[in-house]
Amino acid sequence: MFFYGLIFILNQLMIAAHFLRHSNIFLTVLFLISIVIIFLKVEVKKYLIRAFSLINILIWLFTMYQIVRIRIAFHEPFIRVIIILGAVIILNIITLLFYPKKINR
Length: 105
Description:
74% helix, mainly alpha, 105 residues
């Protein structure tokens, strides 16, 4: 459980940094505050973590699509972007699929 919690925190920090780069303070703060979910003892915790992971996956897929499209248009290399964002997406998928189904109290 500690491992998946650590991955979730890392995912939230990455998505917060992504929005901070675009000067979107509201979403940056939202995703930073969402880290607190890990420390809750409620049953809804697993659903919130999975919801945030799904949102992260969709955001990263859209971001990857935009960056790759722009790089192709300017005839720049794009494979590295796919590898990096693919790794980030895989971390979110790990959290989404394998976060413990039973929460220890």
